[in-house]
Write a sequence for this structure.
């Protein structure tokens, strides 16, 4: 009389422990439901393995994005999805979508966004910063008045230590609100050092309310220094010149109309 061979049991607890010891924590969490679905749907073993690995990779990418966004200092809520292109017809959607591919970041180029206050310069800069993080680049965001004190503190650092500073070595540096206040001669010199260190080694976004012809007055009235900085910044650069209305004034007008 033949005896049926017992179906081998799968020790999921042991498998889960091995996954955890390997650092595959999310895969370990998904093991039970994925195995249960696999039994019901008669899924091939290699597909179950792929699903476990996909679950782990997706969670790790989520964590990377969350951590990178938190460390970047980017202002919250600024995405390309909520930028009002209809309100700013001078901003070409197709051009922004090309910039969002981040090829210019890979090529260590500069993006200069200029225009009057309130037209969305910071929004676009931050939204492109989010895209750069999604593409795997390190990003750090500073208003210029926040970065200048840090650069003054680091003024005497030797090059080897300076290169370890995040504003020097990150993939994309975003400098917001350049030109609202003129720099001192020391600050202008430190700004030149920053641009020189990042030239062809790291991408930069600069938002400014000044046209390039006014940069000497921003840089302590030093035309020679301004020329040297602009020569590096504008070499193989992209320039967006926004000429539209202010979002903040639009909101103010709407509020006044609502209460009028």
């Amino acid at each position: 009389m033949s005896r049926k061979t017992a179906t081998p049991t799968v020790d999921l607890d042991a498998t889960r422990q091995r996954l955890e010891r390997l650092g595959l924590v999310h895969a370990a969490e998904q093991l039970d439901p994925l195995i249960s679905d696999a039994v019901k749907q008669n899924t091939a073993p290699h597909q179950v393995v792929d699903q476990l690995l996909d679950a782990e990779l997706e969670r790790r990418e989520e964590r990377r994005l969350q951590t990178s966004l938190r460390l970047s200092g980017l202002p919250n809520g600024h995405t390309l999805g909520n930028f009002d292109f209809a309100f700013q017809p001078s901003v070409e959607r197709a051009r922004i979508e090309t910039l969002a591919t981040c090829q210019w970041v890979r090529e260590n180029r500069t993006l200069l966004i200029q225009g009057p206050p309130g037209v969305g310069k910071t929004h676009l800069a931050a939204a492109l910063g989010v895209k750069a993080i999604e593409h795997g680049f390190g990003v750090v965001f500073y208003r210029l008045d926040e970065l200048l004190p840090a650069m003054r503190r680091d003024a005497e650092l030797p090059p080897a230590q300076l290169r370890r500073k995040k504003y020097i070595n990150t993939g994309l540096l975003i400098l917001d609100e350049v030109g609202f206040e003129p720099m001192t001669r020391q600050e202008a010199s430190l700004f030149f050092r920053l641009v020189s260190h990042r030239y062809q080694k790291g991408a930069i976004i600069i938002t400014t309310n000044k046209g390039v012809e006014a940069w000497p007055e921003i840089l302590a009235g030093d035309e020679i220094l301004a020329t040297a900085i602009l020569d590096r910044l504008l070499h193989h650069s992209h320039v967006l010149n926004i000429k539209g209305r202010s979002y903040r004034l639009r909101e103010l007008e709407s509020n006044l109309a609502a209460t009028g």
The chain has two domains: 12-72, 93-250.
